[in-house]
Design a protein that fits this description.
alpha+beta, Uridine Diphospho-n-acetylenolpyruvylglucosamine Reductase, domain 2, Uridine Diphospho-n-acetylenolpyruvylglucosamine Reductase, domain 3, Enolase-like, domain 1, 3 domains, 5-stranded antiparallel β-sheet, binds flavin-adenine dinucleotide
Length: 328
């Protein structure tokens, strides 16, 4: 049986430095937030950590608070806390709705914001031990295989889809990702945090070795901001999005002054649909406009052999999300 060391740390800085020390000794390392994903990966052998750095002993990163720059959300805030927070519900409902849509109450009670955003892909090849790009190999088995749940945007050379419900909502709100590592702190824009497989086929984000996500900041919002997260699943509960749509609109009366539309479950990263955003800007939100937004949203899609069903689903999800933000 493999042995595993659990390290309870008292701060993010200690976590980063413990990770660095362990790697210098040739050990593989994983950070654990709630452990809802990681511990199963270790049991299944898809994560081969020798050392688990347990963040549940870290007292920081658990607050949701406003400051001059916006709303800061700690990386160790649980999804239940996020979904129930009055400030988040009042001004960023897409984030609250995304958080409450994750898995089950048990997962949300311990699963953290940071763990949700940095969870590894749930591609059945990767999770079942195939030596694919995500496992360090040089092949994506979905391309010629079972690709019904794989990417219709941004794929290649890996065609995984980003699994997080909360990440697209953060991107739609232009979140700034706060990162700590052995060389100190840095901030990364939402656009730069997630990376396509063409840039790095192994990883889904720009965290460097031994770095952790400590939280996000949502920049100040204008008072007329409205938002929603709409999720389509292949069953009614307990599962990731086939398609999720986070939509944020600055609304004047019923006119969308500007919009952000970000998808999950259809691309290797949270996928901004700029063409829809451009189309919506300045439009009265109506059933016809929402329908056209949905049609525009799939124009650049490149379905694989078995996932064309995602096109009408994505189109309808965008339409539903946009129309739900009509005034009144
Ligand atoms: C049955 C089931 C259903 C699920 N349904 C959904 C769903 O509907 N939607 C969804 O989005 N997710 C879902 N998940 C995935 C996952 O459990 C949740 O996303 C959860 O929020 C992960 O958070 P965690 O803190 O438990 O992460 P962990 O399991 O602790 O970690 C997940 C990954 O993130 C890394 N990590 C954790 N914290 C940090 C950090 N601070 N910095 C850097 N890396 C870090 C870990 O090393 C690991 O690779 C589901 C899981 C299960 C088992």
């Amino acid at each position: 049986m493999r042995s595993l060391t659990n390290l309870n740390v008292a701060s993010f800085e200690e976590a980063a430095s413990a990770a660095q020390q362990a790697r210098q000794l040739g050990q593989s390392v994983a950070f654990s937030g709630g452990g809802t994903d990681l511990l199963q990966q270790i049991k299944d052998g898809t994560d081969n950590a020798d050392v688990v750095i347990n963040l549940r002993s870290v007292p920081d990163g658990r607050a949701i608070e406003t400051n001059g720059n916006g709303v800061s959300i700690g990386g160790l805030v649980t999804l239940t806390e996020l979904s129930e927070d009055p400030l988040v519900n009042a001004s960023m409902s897409a984030i609250a709705q995304a958080a409450v849509s994750v898995g089950t109450p048990q997962i949300r009670n311990v699963g953290t914001l940071a763990g949700n955003v940095t969870q590894r892909p749930w591609c059945w090849y990767y999770r079942n031990g195939f030596n694919c790009f995500k496992a360090g190999g040089e092949e994506c088995f979905s391309l010629d295989g079972e690709n019904g749940q794989h990417a219709i945007f941004g794929g290649g050379p890996s065609f995984i889809v980003h699994p997080s419900d909360v990440a697209p909502a953060l991107v739609a709100f232009d979140a700034i990702f706060q990162v700590t590592g052995p060389n100190g702190d840095r901030e990364v824009s939402a656009e730069d945090f997630f990376v396509l497989p063409i840039t790095d086929p192994v990883r889904e984000n720009s965290l460097r070795e031994n770095e952790l996500l400590t939280g996000v900041v949502i920049p100040n919002l204008s008072a007329n901001t409205v938002s929603t997260y709409y999720k389509v699943m292949d069953r009614e509960a307990w599962t990731h999005a086939e398609i999720g749509v986070a939509t944020v609109i600055q609304r004047d009366g019923n006119v969308a002054q500007s919009a952000k539309v970000v998808l999950t479950g259809v691309a290797p990263i949270p996928w901004r649909v700029q063409a829809v955003e451009d189309f919506l800007a300045g439009k009265q939100i109506s059933a016809a406009v929402a329908r056209e937004a949905g049609e525009i949203g799939i124009r650049d899609a490149q379905p694989l052999t078995k996932n064309a069903h995602k096109l009408p689903m994505t189109s309808a999800a965008i339409e539903t999300a946009v129309l739900s933000l009509a005034a009144g």
